[in-house]
Amino acid sequence: TPPYFPISNECFAEVFDPLSTCGGIGPYLITGWEPGDRMNLQVNPDWPGAAPVFANIQLRFYADADSLRRSLADFRSVDLAWTGLPYADYVSLQSTDADGDGRSDFTAWAGPDIFKSYLIFDQATAPWDSRKVREAAAYALDREALAQLFNGSRHPLYSPVPDTIPGHVDVFPERNLAQARALLLEVGYSQTQPLPITIWYLNDGRYTQLEEAYANAIKAQLEETGVFQVSLEGAPWEIFQTQIFSCAYPAYLVGWPSPGSPTNYLDASSWTDFFVQNTDRGFCSNYTSDAMDDLMEAAAAATDTAERLTIYQQVQTLWAQDYPTLELTQEPRYALSLAKIGGVAIDALGLMHYDTLTKE
């Protein structure tokens, strides 16, 4: 449960309990929970808001994407699929018209951006201790081309804050290889004096099955400068996380938030604060900045929404000077329903609001 969701003082877990049916106070109660199989929801009679259309909803969980697709497309045993449905199926099923009435059998839905992919550089380690080297990497990368690798599921990201989050501003530069070379030359690197670097990435499919191709595309773009010489190293998450938490990787490709986990809050803080407040542990960028610390303190103290948005815009501007992280792509939450389903609403945390669903 995100930290600001209200919970019942009569139903809560003192310690983590995966079988607990307690939840936040909302339009539905959890009446049945079989982990990995299904969850049953029943309308909350004490809910003070508008009554949901459906008195009962059943959520089903699938071990593999193929089973989910068949349940939706072949058997129509579920009305809607979202997390776990491959983007390729999301696209292809939109053209299905089994009865030939000229109307798609499915309706596509998309919510706000709920995931970002980015590079982290250990700024206590050469060459990433040089701001100009970090900036050169930013100029060398073509986010449009990187996003295309995902066949439409991802979009370019030019900020630490996704496009759909309030306060977002584009701050990172468009690709400019000449500028990248010029910055590298200022710190002594050139085509005759190249800069060898290693980038680590997750090779276990934690985010997608395209991570190796994604890392290779980043390598190719950086090497187009004629200066960066990139070696790639892959590792599964079990090894990867121990290494990044101990600052063992000088540069690596990762995503936020963890798969299946929403961010804690709805605003820009969820996409920025952690990366500048835990820099000597966690993701281990070893980034330090008094100016950034001052902005973080000001944002935390501000109670006026407009003031907070202004501060976070300043945070993003400073981000593009220091590069605590270098964001590349972003991805929204997708859902596909039978055509008779309406009212699909996905919020900025990537959570679906079941109380708004309708059915013809």
Short structural description:
This protein is of the alpha+beta class and 360 residues long. The protein has helices spanning 65-74, 87-92, 131-140, 143-148, 177-186, 211-223, 237-245, 269-277, 290-301, 305-322; strands at residues 28-34, 38-43, 56-60, 80-81, 106-121, 155-156, 195-202, 228-235, 251-256, 326-338, 341-342, 358-359.
Structure description:
The relative contact order is 0.18. Strands 4, 5, 6, 9 and 10 form a five-stranded antiparallel sheet that branches. Strands 1-2-3 form a three-stranded antiparallel sheet, with no helix packed on it. It has a two-stranded parallel sheet with strand order 7-8. The chain has ten helices and twelve strands. The protein has two domains: 28-111 and 336-359, Periplasmic binding protein-like II (D-Maltodextrin-Binding Protein, domain 2), CATH 3.40.190; 113-332, Dipeptide-binding Protein, Domain 3 (Dipeptide-binding Protein, domain 3). β7, α6 and β8 form a beta-alpha-beta unit. 29% of the residues lie in helices and 21% in strands. The radius of gyration is 23 Å and the shape is globular. The protein is an alpha+beta fold and 360 residues long. α3 packs antiparallel against α5.
